[in-house]
Amino acid sequence: MARLAVIPALFFVLLAAATTGGAGARDADSYGIRDALAFHPEANATSPSPAASRDDAASSSRDGGNDTDDDLDAVDVPSRRALAATPTNTLPIDPSGTRAPGSVALPASWDHRTVDASSCDGFLHVELWDTERVDVATGEYTPMPRKAHPLLAVRYGADAAPTWDAASRVWKFDASANTDADEHGFEHNRAYMHVSIDLRTCATKCSQHGNWDGGACAAACVADPLKSSLFHIGVYNFNGWATRTLRYDLKAACVASTQPPCPRPLGAAGGYCGSTMAWSRGTCGWVNGDSGRVTPKDAGSNRDDTADDYGACACNDGYGNVGCESAVTTLRHGATRIGSADRSEWALYTVDVGASSSSLVVEMTRSSGDPVMFVKPAGEFGETPSIDDFELHADVDGFRSRENFHYKRIALTTGTYYVGVYDNDLYVQETANFVVRAWWSAPTLGPLLCPANCDSPRGGTCVESGATSDRLGECRCAERRGGEHCRGELVSAGFGYVVSGKIAEGKWLYLQFEVSAEQARASMRVVFTKKGGHPTLQMKKGDFPTFLSADVVISQTQFLPEQTTFTIRPRYLSEGTHYLGVFNMGYYADGTCEFVIELVTDADEWSWMPPRLLTIAIVVVLILAACLLLAVCKRCVERNRERERRGEAVTMFGFPRTM
Asked: Which regions are flagged for Low complexity bias (predicted)?
């Protein structure tokens, strides 16, 4: 009986083996849908090498990575609390305009200066240049992938002490603290920042601009600005995307003018708005054409509408940004432009849709790097897109899907737009090269607008959508084409089919196959053989899968062996049409992908029974047969012993022995 006790143990061993996957095959259950890639404006200085960055990004879907936009806040910055201040440097900055060099070596630290502006009856203009990025003497800019991230703040009577809110990614200022800061400059991480404070008395303002509306100027200007105490200038080295010493030049001047000063990011030699460069880049004027109307101030405060304190640059053709410091290319209707952006730098374009309402489509086709495309209306100060515009103005899905083709569609708009292409420099650390195009159409009159023009003529045609008045159409794919904008090849397949071919970099192949009710109750296998490229596999029922939308992501790593068998469990299968998409991603590995795909189902004549239950049934039958054989053997042994007691000669199986 001791030997028979082995049988239950053997049963459970076999049962365990039947309910676990065999070695050597990959189970698609372990390949969850890829978390969205994070947009990081700058990689941390301790980021891995380019190869490691590519590998990590490609394999994070199966390694449990969580590269979401929450990573943007994972920086060593105090959240919702005042930042610690260092002792104030009591040496005043010369109000006449002499530059003072300085540096902030430690991240998340301040450098404080003071300035006496008690005799200023104009505008106190404080300027900062990051001298590692811009030569103040010549105005020359040096692209830098790893930048310091300064904040310039000016407070009356005490050191600036704003609070950084990591959740909303904004600085919080005490309303009563009389603090002005270049928040836009910080948002864009500009190499130049400035703060302008109107210190003119009410009498000066009203005399310069006329006591308009029968004395309304004097009524609006209820109090002269505070300036008897020192102004405290704070320079903060933000510890965000790169830990780097901030080296800067600082300048404070009293600008005696009827008009607020404009930015001069190109230095004193470049003048306001680059107006004194060899080729004038722009002119300084009032914001929105304002001629100096006074907005009411709170009593005891130096703060009012910033439109009164700051001038605005009107940039000439070919230049843009707040100080006309950036080269900007005009995009003509329908024409393509070849462009490039250095690591962590921008390439800027303008699109003038005109005064009549039109719909706009802007496209970018990537060939290298990790570019992100932004499309943003030009603001009152001419702000170009910034890294904080990602969610609102960037092609978020195009960037996260790792496609080479990116686009933005804007219905029924007017005016001027900035198109910015930023090289993200986190996952792919190389210069971004691309082609951009913009085209627009007036309602009811112009042509229909479809991204990539539906890859016409092979891909499909652009047809009217539900809302035809905006001229934004939709793609109707040709036979054997599918996917977004009809840019993928479509092949009809089935279980037992073998499909082979080549997929160009950045292109899709879709296999369409039917799953019966019986096959949906069994597992299926994808036998995938590849050579070259970076193929990713994903599957979806009833629609074409994408890198971001799939029922099951089978593989996204670039390190697949030459041949791999993936098992798709029944939980991902149901009766109907399924699509297997193979995308040759061109971000982390280059080149064409040669492939062979075979679809295999585990359903057979036993398909009425789930595979695991079928395996268990077979094991039980074998165990029962073994028990029956042991019972027969036991019976034979007992019979032999009985005949031996009677003196009969028998064989071991109980038969009489012949003489």
From this structure: 47-63
